[in-house]
Amino acid sequence: MAEPTPGPDALDLRKGLPDALKVLLADYPREAWAADPGFHGLVSFWLDRHQMFRRLLGMMQADTVALRSRDIDPRQFSQRLSRLGGTFVQELHGHHQIEDHHYFPVLMQKEPAIARGFEILDSDHHALDGHLDGFVKGANGLIAALADPIATGSAAARFDTDLSRFETFLDRHLTDEEDLIVPILLRHGERSLG
């Protein structure tokens, strides 16, 4: 596996995949995916997993805002963050492992002309591992700070900022991954994954 990509394709720098890697997106535009006969099944399931990650992150952000404005009990916040955060981390790690060890190698063989896209996505996974580690440390730090109302405010503000940054990186990765992979799956069919 690759280390995080340096340069303009790095997750924290890029604004999207290079146009040369989005060639199949012209034949399979995002707005037509749901109408494609190959959409239902693996493609819709996989996209739903991506939406789950976005929803979980959004729920944790909303809870953190509620904590900062004292609209949620700290104990309830702690329980929700532990549950939602644990699910988020475990599911995202598992999702990336399946992609890295099965989907990406198979799909790269189907479309070798855009193999660079898979290298970028694999590198994203490594970069996101660092962000996930930071998320866990931040969540644990915030939970520990809940016993002190003064410390809670500053810890919640930091965590809120970190969640917003993480959301930006995660959404960039998920969007780019969708733009690269969904057209391949629609073109070759989910049976092509073996």
Helix percentage range: over 70%
Radius of gyration: 18 Å
Largest sheet: none
Strand pairing plus helix content: what structural class?
Answer: mainly alpha
Annotated CATH homologous superfamily: nmb1532 protein domain like
Span between N and C termini?
22 Å
Question: What is the count of DSSP helices, taking H or I runs of 4+ residues?
Answer: 5
In percent, how much strand structure appears in the residues? Answer: under 5%
CATH class: Mainly Alpha
The CATH architecture category equals Up-down Bundle
Q: What features would you describe in this structure?
A:
It is built from five helices and no strands. The chain has a single domain, classed as nmb1532 protein domain like (Four Helix Bundle (Hemerythrin (Met), subunit A), Up-down Bundle). It is elongated, with a radius of gyration of 18 Å. The chain is mainly alpha-helical and 194 residues long. The model has no long low-confidence stretch (mean pLDDT 94). Helices cover 72% and strands 0% of the residues. The longest helix is centred in the C-terminal third of the chain and has 40 residues. Helix 2 runs antiparallel to helix 5 and helix 4 runs antiparallel to helix 5.
